[in-house]
Amino acid sequence: MSKVIVRPASLVKQGDLTLYATSLRVSDLLIPNFYSIERLDPENACEKGYQRLLNKSRAKKLADYIVAGQETKDAFLPTSIFIATDKSIPFNPSNNTIEINIAEIGPFNVVDGQHRVEGLKMAAEKDPRVMEFEVSVNIAINLSEIAQMCHFLIVNTTQKSVEEGVAQRIRARLTMAMDVDETPILPKWILNSVQKGEDEKALQYVDYLNNDKDSPWQNKVKMANEENSEGSINQKSFVKAIKKYLLVANNPILSTEKEDKQHKIFLNYWKAITNILGDTAPTVLFKYNGVELFCKFCVPFYNKMVNMPDYKVSTMQNLLEKVFENVEGDAAGVGHTDFWVKSGTASGLNTGALSKINSEMVKALHKKTDSKAESEKEV
Prior knowledge:
Radius of gyration: 26 Å
Number of strands: 10
Helix content: 40-55%
């Protein structure tokens, strides 16, 4: 027989959003199929999940507090849990109650409060008295999954922080959904980012490099929500560098090449770099300093490449070797493997030093002019 919960509730209308403000016992929350937590999957970032990873230590602290409070009767949890469904829940205005049929409505998605839910679950496993503990709950109804994701992003950028890698993935999905799905009104600072679409574009570069079997970057990027990764740089930092240095107006391939080819050209660029500098550990090349320098140098390099016959690895490598041969000053060793080994020169460089090296590389890039023109680039 299906479990039906009847609870007193207040009907709250916020624009097009309909909420029920109510309370539920922990025993209600723990009914099978009552709730679901859609976590972002680092192995398949295109799936619908959006929640951050569970911090078990944080949940355990709450559980210990709730259990201890069962003796003293002073445990309290005033902050509401926010759950949502894309279905409707009947409201009885005569007695201000809602009726939740779990078989028809469940599972609810936990939009905000996953650590509270997990902590309460842990507490109930330790002390059965916790099952009768009541918590404040806000229930949004008739809310699509894309809208639920939007509200998660809004809550976690206006009230508390969410890991930037997770936020990048959510903004990218919203960019793809803008013209095809109904989405709620977003705060201006989120909407501007979503409309520009830079997260979505930059993530395409990062995913391509991290997943391609012939890429020197294969499995070297720690993706959002990925635990126990051996990645040398996180997704957040790589995306930030691409947005800052590649997705710019003076990048010649953005307006002349299709996106798939742009990704291939960027991969060839890194293949050329690693053919010269090596790609075996331990190397700083695949950490922040390597990404910062070679992403910064990428657009000047591309602008030189437009005068070359193609974008093949060999052509790029030939030009890079000339740059490394001609670079002067403190940057003179940048084209040698020893410069990039762990604890070597590159390890101790700050942002200012990297900018100076980039300037020297750009000077070296223009020391010699290749007069070859090209009609159509090949990869």
